[in-house]
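Need tokens for this chain, all 325 residues.
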Amino acid sequence: MTELLNLFCSCHPEFIESISVLSENIKQDALDRLENAKTETDFLSLIAEINFGLLFNKLGFQLEYEKKYSKKTPDWTITLQNSTAICEVYRMGLSKKDQNISDFVNQIKRNFSKLPYSYRIRFTFLQEYFESTKYDAEKIIFELSEWLKKSGRLIGDKTIIENNFIFEIDSVTNKNHLITGGKIDFKPEKLIQFEHLESDNNITEKISKYNSIIIQNQLPYFICIDSDFRNAFNYNEFVECFLGSSVIDTTPCPEACYLPEYDEWGIEFTDLGVFYKNPLLSGVIIKICNEFKILLNPMKNQLIYNEKNRFILEKLKAIVIANAS
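Here are the structure tokens for all 325 residues:
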């Protein structure tokens, strides 16, 4: 076994046995890919693919791993009662930009904890997304140290460094070094296609990746999202993104009505989600906090609702139940 696979198995000793339920050729293919993975990101992406394969196997589907369709290979082809669907797995970790921010913040925290002051300090920033290359972590820590040197610092005192980094004294401790508090969340630009992005994000790319195959073969198509805990998304945000949500527009207009619960004048309307803009996407299957959940495209002319796909649909609806056992 390679170092990455050895390390993973040391933390998950049941892993090798768990994949024995897969067919021998799929199991061996998966192990070969894991052993040849060059980076941690590639390795964990393969683990995500295997986890969804285990889910589909548990539900009773016949599986094909990376079956070729016109030179394209969706991760899983699942079949039941002569009906077939294709599934693409996407591990949603930190984007490159988020990883750079995370590394920068961790660098600040490491230097931060070396300062000889007996405070617990809450560390946040004004701009959630910033170009970390524009800032010098050592300079930020130096300015913080200079601020703390001044006598009379009280709980609640705060300083903003470089017009972005907020340090606030939360409490006094009996330690001889600083302790950081506060939660730093990153909402990566991987779920929603923001207008300012120069190219499609990963989800946007995968939505349209198999359009020609879907149309030609009339196959339901699912994106399987393995949501890494570091990206800070919760299930409701996936619901809002793919199904849509109610939005309050408070722009003054003649038809505006008073909305007492918002203490505003405005109009409530529905912002349609990804499913309504991408009718070929049958649904998304989400693994979050070690639980699987499914969101189905509500458009009734979607392929998944065809009578020939009835058995696949019923099995997939049982995903949450299957995971609970």
